[in-house]
Fold:
Amino acid sequence: MFAGLICLVHCLALPFAIAALPALGLLNLENDYTHILLFAWVALFSISIFLGYKKHRQTSVLSLMFLGLCFVMTATFHHAFGVSESLEVPVISMGNLLLVLAHFMNRRISRQIQA
Structure:
């Protein structure tokens, strides 16, 4: 959940940060390593959803995770998928919200099983 929230904050704050970078002489838009790293970070934390799924077998949680990861991946690699750069922030935000929802559902269901 935390990784998805950090990515969401990153995406919402990025336009303001980019606006400030030219003044600092630090603008390099050709470097996509930040987005690749964030996608890997989010995907890594999605493993916890899969581990929860192995216990509770609720396909809705796993479906939300995969859908969220697809949105995040599409936004991260939007050029490869033919998605306009103007859609990057809305698409990745939707993906992160779906991942956060999947994490909440996973925790709730896992706690019900333990009780």
User: Anything to note?
Assistant: The chain has a mean pLDDT of 81. Residues 2-114 form one domain. The radius of gyration is 16 Å. The chain is about 85% helix and 0% strand.
